[in-house]
């Protein structure tokens, strides 16, 4: 049980996760003791609490769950502020474990996508703004709390957070996980949610779908050869949403699966490996 009014460090993550169900019935606040950079963090608080993290108010589910994402370059601790329904306050410290970020060299990328012509800069900016706008809002769906499944099975050909060099030109850190798979392979929804963006031909990401899993957690699927859903469609875990392709900035057929908490990018592989 969390003591009120103290700065806390809870028990190790595995133990904390095991206590969630029983402790929640007693009105406890439960978060993992530590998480890695790029993690999705789910905690439990008394229902009706007010919770903030990193200057943002976190919505609390009717059963007392909250979720947030830890950025790739975040340094700890992550401080979660909880005001319980009785007015008592708690400040929970979650240690952030730093990760090593190697460099990945990607060759054979279409040159026009590495150094786009000036004439297409406005198009790229408009497309990126549209994607950002789709991520800005999130509904009260609870797909984020499901145990995510792989959208496709295949070799991981690109890892989250690694520095990218395209055809010898340094780029931004990789924002998701690349999974190599044959052209046309069905892409499945890794968790339930609502389609908030679906466009077949963005300049850099090609066929692109965004799914809102609720409470700020979203998935994005890039380089698709076919889109099988439209904006507004509600999908269940395992539904087919599209097909693997090599559209946009890609060297061959693969799925780029990215995840976000609003505008914070998180690592899909850590979400898949979350304790059950």
Principal-axes shape call:
globular
Discrete helix count: 4
- CATH H-level superfamily of the largest domain: Glucose Permease (Domain IIA)
CATH architecture of the largest domain: Distorted Sandwich
CATH class of the largest domain: Mainly Beta
Q: Rounded to an integer, what's the Rg over CA atoms? A: 19 Å
Query: How many structural units, i.e. domains?
Result: 2
Could you please say which CATH topology of the largest domain applies here?
Answer: Glucose Permease (Domain IIA)
| Major sheet attributes | 8 strands, antiparallel
**What's the count of strands?**
22
Sketch the topology as an H/E string, one letter per element: EHEEEEEEEEHHEEEEEEEEEEEEEH
Average of per-residue pLDDT values: 88
Structural class: mainly beta
Distance between termini? 21 Å
Q: In percent, how much strand structure appears in the residues?
A: 35-45%
Low-confidence stretches: 1-26
Helix content: 10-25%
What does this molecule look like?
The chain is mainly β and 276 residues long. It folds into two domains: 7-97, Immunoglobulin-like (Sandwich), CATH 2.60.40; 103-272, Glucose Permease (Domain IIA) (Distorted Sandwich). The protein is 13% helix and 39% strand. The strands form five sheets. Strands 10, 13, 15, 16, 17, 19, 21 and 22 form an eight-stranded antiparallel β-sheet that branches. A hairpin with a 2-residue loop joins strand 11 and strand 12. Mean pLDDT is 88; it is low at 1-26.
């Amino acid at each position: 049980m969390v003591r009120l009014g103290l700065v806390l460090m809870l028990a190790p993550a595995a133990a904390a996760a095991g206590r969630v169900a029983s402790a929640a019935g007693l009105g406890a606040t439960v978060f993992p003791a530590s998480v890695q950079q790029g993690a999705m963090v789910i905690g439990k608080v008394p229902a009706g609490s007010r919770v903030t993290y990193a200057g943002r108010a976190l919505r609390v589910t009717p059963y007392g769950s909250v979720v947030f994402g830890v950025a790739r370059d975040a340094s700890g601790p992550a401080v979660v502020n909880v005001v319980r329904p009785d007015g008592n306050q708690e400040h929970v410290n979650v240690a952030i474990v730093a990760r090593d970020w190697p460099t990945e060299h990607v060759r054979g990328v279409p040159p026009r996508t590495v150094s786009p012509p000036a004439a297409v800069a406005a198009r790229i900016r408009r497309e990126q703004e549209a994607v950002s706008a789709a991520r800005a809002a999130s509904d009260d769906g609870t797909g984020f709390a499901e145990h995510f499944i792989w959208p496709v099975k295949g070799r991981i050909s690109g890892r989250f957070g690694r520095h990218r060099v395209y055809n010898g030109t340094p780029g931004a850190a990789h924002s998701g996980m690349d999974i190599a798979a044959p052209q046309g392979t069905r892409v499945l929804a890794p968790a339930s949610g609502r389609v908030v963006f679906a466009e077949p031909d963005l300049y850099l990401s090609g066929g692109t779908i965004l799914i809102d899993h609720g409470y700020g957690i979203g998935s994005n699927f890039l380089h698709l050869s076919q889109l099988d859903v439209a904006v507004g469609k509600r999908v269940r875990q395992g539904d087919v949403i599209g097909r693997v392709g090599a559209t946009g900035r890609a060297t061959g057929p693969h799925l780029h699966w990215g995840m976000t908490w609003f505008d914070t990018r998180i690592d899909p592989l850590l979400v898949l490996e979350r304790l059950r």
